[in-house]
Amino acid sequence: MLRLRYLLPLAIVLYLLTGLSQVKPEERGVVRRFGEVVARPGPGLWVGLPWGIDRIDRVPVRTAQEFTIGYNPENWSDLPGTPTGQFLTGDHNLVNVQFVLHYAIGETDQELDDYVMHKDQVEAILGRVIEAATSEWAAGESVDRVLLTGSAVIPTWLMDRIRERLPKFHLGIQVQRVNVSYLAPPMEVRAAFEAVTQAQTGIRTKEFQARQEASQRERQAEALRYKLEQEAAEYQESQLRQASADATEFQAQLATYREVSKNNPDALAFLWWDEMRKAITGLKNRGGRVEPLDAYLGSNGLDVTQIINPKKR
After folding, report:
1. φ/ψ bin of 271: left (φ > 0), alpha (ψ from -120 to 50), beta (otherwise)
2. What pTM value is reported for the model?
3. Could you tell me the residue range of the domain that residue 43 belongs to?
């Protein structure tokens, strides 16, 4: 009777310690009774059966999970053989890659059950899926392309492969993103690759500068072309206006001559001398010499040597 009196309080204490559980606001609970899921309580106090009968797993569904996969540059010299995260490229070179993967646990009942059943295998399976997909991509690319574009291209490639291959494992997780945190050739040949990378960077810099200069010269040529076209159009327009004005003036003079010549037979001579007057006046205004040539006429014709003054020295 005395023993029963002590066993009862002890049983109550054990029940309170193992039969009551607190599920936090960012968690969901999965209660298994003899291995079978019987409840999935939300945040709050869960009252169940004691340990040995019920087992509750608190799953952090609102917390993003993160872990690192692949090559670890900090302990590369301590690893015998081929280190984890080392991949063979299509041109038979080696590259070392490290990934940081972010995932979240699903909140549906099925996802919660799957995660609880396989949570010890999640990271191992994710590692195998990612390494297999990376090996496929690297095997189809040259080492230069892997090193130059891998950080940007591999995450997209991996996310597509993960969406295809992960559901069959029923892990109950959703991969949010994959980042490449380290990508480099093996340490033994890194100096040579860095020299090549610097040379390629110099080539790209020169190409960029050449394209900039070519673009600038094209803009300058385009501006000059536009300027010349505008000047040519303005000159054409001015010449057309001048020709139209000259034609109008000529038509007016022709009409006047025809009208005057009906009554005055000397009208053509008058027009001739009027034009000569204009020409001579224009010549004088421009500093030319205007004088009669009769004085230079001789028995042998016009002596032009007397008309042209020798150049002054």
Report:
1. alpha
2. 0.56
3. 2-59
